[in-house]
Target: DNA-binding protein
Amino acid sequence: MSIITDAAVNEKGNRQLLGAFLRRRREALDPARLGLPRVRNRRTPGLRREEVAQLADVGVTWYTWLEQGRDINASAKTLSAIAIALQCNEAETRHLFRLAGHQQPTLTAAKACAKVSAHSQIMLDALDPLPAIIENKRFDILAHNPAWCRLMGIDLNSLPPEERNCIWLAFTNDAWRSAMADWEEVMPHMVALFRAQMGDHLGEPEWENMLERLMATSAEFRQTWQRYELKSFENRVRHFYRAEVGQMALRQNNWWSTPRNGDRLLVYVPDDEISAAALAKLTA
Model:
């Protein structure tokens, strides 16, 4: 007599839920929007199984078994291809991976937040002449307005995407660093924020690669990292310096777009009249 464990029952239930989810996603798609040829004798809405299999570059029989909830293994790479074929959003992709017994790769999540919407850029541009950026949890700069570039004395659009990161620029870009009048205070605070954020992403390639690059490039970062300090985000006054206008005190205000992906809007507002006049002159 065999004993069926709770884990086996849960796994079987998840396979059935996965199959149901795949069918619903497939039936919800419009073949015309995906550029697929029209077929007159479509008896069911959405895509056919063979069309999904073709888009995901998997076998039709294998995909059919997956929809039927059979006991087959799907790699993370294959699941990612299926998620793309089925036009899954971030939440749906995460759900797909969870039902299949996999942890969603960081790359999938990274792609979801690799760029901001046109509406977000419109918002940033409307905030000008207040310097503003949107960055993710890893401090990658996803979008910015012209006032931010003038404040930091650097053209972000001229930099490759892998260098558009606040911590990377702080430790590697002379113009960026010279614009930070409170470097000795801000620098360890940034490192402590990065360490605290990384605690939720240990072992993830993008985070590990970022840390390795910083450790290999900056002795100052290495020394500060060894302090093992952790900080949380807060609205605080930052001090900047530009030769054209002198020093400015600007209050950093933080807003989060959604709690899950961690994208953060930073807006810098003058903290006094002298700083307001200096910023107005700088961004005129």
